[in-house]
């Protein structure tokens, strides 16, 4: 029975290298580190500029490997969507960006598999919570107010339309 080793790492999307943290962790396993790095970069290219969690499973006998990529943090997705450097140091007073409802729904869909929410509406509310901490408004409004609007059903049509077309090309 062959042994499997798992290496967890946080890499910059599309910019992983054979240096730390991957090289030192994978080198002793006798695998083609460059092949793994290339695979990671191919899978994470859409997350350029963001830290992305990756899990590499290596079969130590056959040297076969499998790469599973997580999604960047909610904060990283918001910061990337707004093309800003970072969130606000004082989110109550200093606002650093404004998301559209469409951007918010897109982030919620990316995080959908990882958040605790049971549906897209609840996932959107979870992302709104991150907006509060980062000092980000949504369509010019405080994220807490937008959460209330989501609860009242103001965006139900937008959320339903997105869900209905989610699995279509």
What does this structure look like?
The structure is a single chain. The chain has 7 helices and 5 strands; from the N terminus they run E-H-H-E-E-H-E-H-H-E-H-H. Helices cover 42% and strands 17% of the residues. It has 2 domains: 4-69, Ribosomal protein L11, N-terminal domain (2-Layer Sandwich), CATH 3.30.1550.10; 74-165, Ribosomal protein L11/L12, C-terminal domain (Arc Repressor Mutant, subunit A, Orthogonal Bundle). The strands form 2 sheets. It has a 3-stranded antiparallel sheet. Strands 4-5 form a two-stranded parallel ribbon. The longest helix is centred in the C-terminal third of the chain and has 15 residues, at 120-134. Residues 162-169 have low confidence and may be disordered. Helix 3 runs antiparallel to helix 4 and helix 5 packs antiparallel against helix 6. With 169 residues, the chain is α+β, with helices and mostly antiparallel strands.
CATH evolutionary superfamily of the largest domain: Ribosomal protein L11/L12, C-terminal domain
CATH topology of the largest domain: Arc Repressor Mutant, subunit A
Number of helices: 7
| Approximate strand percentage | 15-25%
Q: How many structural domains can be distinguished in the coordinates?
A: 2
Helix-strand string: EHHEEHEHHEHH
What integer is the average pLDDT? 89
Question: How many β-strands, per DSSP?
Answer: 5
From the N-terminal CA to the C-terminal CA, the straight-line distance is 41 Å
Helix content: 40-55%
| CATH class call of the largest domain | Mainly Alpha
| Low-pLDDT segments | 162-169
């Amino acid at each position: 029975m062959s042994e499997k080793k798992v290496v967890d790492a946080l890499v910059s999307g599309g910019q992983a290298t054979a240096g730390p943290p991957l090289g030192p962790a994978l080198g002793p396993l006798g695998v083609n580190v460059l092949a793994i790095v290339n695979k990671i970069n191919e899978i994470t290219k859409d997350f350029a500029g963001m830290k992305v969690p990756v899990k590499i499973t290596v079969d130590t006998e056959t040297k076969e490997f499998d790469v599973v990529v997580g999604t960047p943090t909610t904060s990283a997705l918001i910061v990337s969507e707004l093309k800003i450097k970072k969130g606000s140091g004082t989110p109550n007073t200093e606002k650093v960006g404004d998301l559209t409802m469409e951007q918010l729904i897109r982030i919620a869909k990316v995080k959908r598999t990882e958040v605790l929410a049971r549906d897209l509406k609840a996932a959107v509310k979870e992302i709104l919570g991150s907006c509060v901490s980062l000092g980000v408004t949504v369509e010019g409004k405080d994220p807490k107010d937008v959460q209330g609007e989501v609860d009242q059903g103001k965006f139900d049509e937008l959320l339903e339309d997105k869900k209905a077309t989610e699995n279509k090309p």
